[in-house]
Amino acid sequence: MSLIDLSAVSFAYGRGRNVLDGIDLKIEAGRNLGIVGESGSGKTTILRLLLGLARPTAGRMTFRGEGLDPGNRAVMRGFRRAVQAVFQDPYSSLDPRQKVFDIVAEPLRSLKIDMDIDDAVAGALASVDLPPDAARRYPHEFSGGQRQRIAIARAIVSRPELVLADEVVSALDLTTRIRIVDLLKTLSERTTLVLVSHDIGFVALLCHDLVILEKGRIVEQGAARDILSAPQHPYTRRLLDSTPRLMDFA
Amino acid sequence: MTDDAPALAQPSSLRLTPAFLIGAALVGLHVVVGLMTLVWTPYDPTAMTGGRLAPPSLLHWAGTDRLGRDLFTEIMIGARIALAVGSGAVTIAAAIGVTVGLLAAFASRAVDDVLAATLDILIAFPTLLLAMLIVAASDGASLGTAILAIGVAASAIVARLTRILARRVLAMDYVTAARVSGTSWLGIVRIHVLPNIWPTLVVNFALQFGLAVIAEASLSYLGLGAPPPNASWGRLLQEAQATVYTAPFGAVAPGLALVSLVIGLNLFADGLRDVADPTRRRRG
Ligand SMILES: Nc1ncnc2c1ncn2[C@@H]1O[C@H](COP(=O)(O)OP(=O)(O)OP(=O)(O)O)[C@@H](O)[C@H]1O
Ligand SMILES: [Mg+2]
Fold first, then answer.
1. Contact B76, B131 (CB under 8 A)
2. Among positive and negative, which fits the CA dihedral B109, B114, B119, B120?
3. How far is the CA of A46 from the centre of ligand 1 (A)?
4. pLDDT computed for residue A244 by the predictor
5. Is B5 on the interface with A (CB under 8 A)?
6. Which domain, by its residues, includes A196?
7. Is residue B5 pLDDT above 50, yes or no?
8. pLDDT grade, residue B4 (50/70/90)?
9. CA-based, 20 to 30 A from B101: which of B81, B152, B193, B195?
10. Alpha-carbon distance A28 to A137, whole Å?
11. CA A216, A47, A226: angle at the middle one, nearest 5?
C-alpha cells in the first residue's frame, strides 16, 4: 500500500481559480519522489496538501489507504507521527527565541513520542553533523547552512517515515548545497524523501521518481532515469536545459 | 561591542543604556516615594500646617496650598495614586488586550475583520473621552472607575498591537513546522507566539503606563478622577489654577512630578526595547 495517495486532487485558494488540477500521485515507502516545476507551478501548494495543512477542494487524499479527516484523531495522529517537513527559508523556519535543543525536541514533545529526549536530540544533531554543544545555542548564532541542518535534525528526530522538503537548498551557496545533498542522501537510507524544487538537477540526485508540474497540472511523471534521458514533454526539456548540472559535482 | 564582533548575544544578557538607567532611576524614585507615603509623610496631608499659599521653604519644600496644607506631602501621595492607576490600568489593558488580540490573530477571516474594525473605532475615540463615558456610566468618580476606564480605553491599542505582532509570528515557517509536529494552538501561543511578541508588548506597556498617568491627571483635573482626600496631581493642578499668577509653584511642583514620571517611563520603555530583545541590540 502506498504511504500517501492523491487521486484527481484539485485545490484552489479561497474562491480563486484552481492552483492544482487533477493531480494523481502516489508516494511509496522507500522511493524518493521529486516534484519539479517553475515558480508558481503549485509545488508548495502540493506540499501543503501532503502535510495536511490544507485540504483538497476536489479529489481524494489517503494516508495508508485511509482518508485524512481532521475529526479522526487516530488517523491524524498516525499521520503527524509519520510525516515531517523541512522548509525553504532557514531563517523563518527556526524560532529565534528557542534554544536549538527545544527546537529539535518540539516534535518529540508535541507528538508525545516515547523516547529519551536528551538522547534523541543529541542523536539527531549528530546525524546532521552538528556538535553536541549546538543544543545550548540560539539560531542566530548559526549560518544558513547550519540552520538548515538544525531544521533537518528537527524533521528526523521523531524518526518519521516521510520527510517533505521545500526548496531546501535554494537559499544556500553551491558548496553548502553539495554538503546538504550528501546529508540528505545519507538520511534517505532511513526515511523516504519528497523533494520539491525548481531545480531538476538537484532533485534528480536524490530521487527515484519525478513528477513534473506545469501550472498546477502534472505533465510528465515516472522514473527519474527515464525522464532525464528521454524527456517526453517540451516543458520538461526546457527545465532540463535551464538547470546547471549540479550532478557533475556529486 | 565592536562592529565586527560576531553575533554571539545570549538572550539573557543585559545591555543597560544611559537612557534606560535614567528612566529606571526616575521611575524608581517615584515608586520609593509612593510606597513611603503608606507609612510616613512629612506632614498630615489634611492638616493646616502653615500659612496659605506659602512659597517653598525649608519647612515646606514645595510650599503650601490655599488651605495651608503641605504641598510636598500631597505630591508624594500623588505619586502613589499615579502609580496605582498606571499599574492597575496597564494590568487591565494587558489582560483584555492580549487576549482579544490573540483571538483576532487566530480567528477566521470574517471574525478577524469585525474585531479589527471594532478596535479601529475604539482607538479613534480619544482615551479621555472613552474614560469620561465610562466614569459617567458608573456610580461616580472613584479611584477604581478611573483605573477601569483608562485600562479599558488602553486595551484596544494593546489588542491591535498584539494582533499585528501575533499574525506576523503565525506566518513564520517555524509555526508551520509546529503545526506539522502536531503542536496544539495553545502550545503554539505558549511556545512561539508569546515569547516572540513579549519584548515589544512590554515596551508598549511601559509607554501605556505613561499615557495612563497622564489620563489619570486629566480625569482628576476635570473632576472625574479619584475624589478628595486623594491628592491626585491632576487635582493639585486644577486647584492651583486659580492662583497660578500669585503662587506659581502650586502648579509647577505637581507638573514637574507628572512630567518626571512620564519622561522616566518613556526612557525606561526605550531602554527596555534593547534589554528585552538581544537579537536586535544596537552595536558600537
Ligand atoms: N495563500 C495564497 N493565496 C492565494 N493564492 C496563492 C497562495 N499561495 C499561492 N498562491 C498561488 O498559487 C499558485 C501556486 O503557488 P505555489 O506557492 O504553490 O507555487 P510554487 O511552485 O511553490 O512557486 P515557487 O517556486 O515560487 O515557490 C501561484 O499562482 C500563487 O500565486
Ligand atoms: Mg514554493
1. no
2. positive
3. 10
4. 62
5. no
6. 2-91+163-248
7. no
8. very low
9. B81
10. 37
11. 65
DSSP B280: G
Which phi and psi (to 5°) does residue A196 adopt?
Answer: -110, 130
The residue written with cell numbers 548559526 in the block is: A142
Query: Domain tally for chain B?
Result: 1
- pLDDT more than 70, % of chain B: 92
The ipTM, to two decimals, is 0.90
For residue range B107-137, list pLDDT tens digits in order.
Answer: 888 888 898 898 888 888 887 887 788 878 8
Distance from CA of A82 to the nearest CA of B (A): 10
CB contact under 8 A, A95 and B187: no
Domain assignment of residue A58, yes or no: yes
User: Cβ(B261)–Cβ(B26) under 8 Å?
Assistant: yes
Indicate the pLDDT class of residue B10, thresholds 50, 70 and 90: very low
Backbone angles phi, psi at B151, to 5 degrees: -65, -45
Q: Confirm if A99 and A136 have CB atoms less than 8 A apart.
A: yes
Output the nine-digit C-alpha cell for B42: 512629612
Q: Which residue has the cell 501605556?
A: B208
Task: Dig out the grid coordinates for A58 from the structure.
Answer: 476536489
- Residue tagged 508535541 (cell numbers): A110
What is the pTM assigned to this prediction? 0.86
Q: Mind listing the pLDDT tens digit for each residue in B216-257?
A: 999 899 888 877 777 899 999 998 888 888 888 889 999 999
For residue B165, which amino acid is it? L
Q: How many CB atoms are closer than 10 A to CB A34?
A: 24
Q: Is residue A6 part of a domain?
A: yes
B137 Cβ neighbours under 8 A, 6+ residues apart: none
- For residue A212 and ligand 1, the question of a CB distance below 6 A is answered with no
* Phi, psi values for residue A166, rounded to 5°: -100, 110
The size of the A-B interface in CB pairs under 8 A is 75
Please give the tally of structural domains in chain A. 1
Check CB contact under 8 Å for B172 and A84.
no
Residue A13 Cβ contacting ligand 1 at under 6 Å: yes
What CATH number has the domain bearing residue B25?
1.10.3720.10
The pair phi, psi for residue A221, each rounded to 5°, is -150, 150
Cβ-proximal residues to B225 (8 Å cutoff; 6+ apart), any chain: B141, B143, B146, B216, B217, B219, B232, B234, B235
Specify if B4 maps to a domain: no
| Interatomic CA distance for residues B123 and B120, integer angstroms | 5
Closest ligand 1 atom to residue A48 Cα is: 18
Kindly identify the ligand whose nearest atom is closest to the C-alpha of A23.
Answer: 1
- Domain assignment present for B190: yes
- Give me the phi and psi of B145, to 5 degrees please: -65, -35
Cβ <8 Å between A140 and B173: no
Helix, strand, coil share (%) of chain B residues, nearest 5 = 70, 0, 30
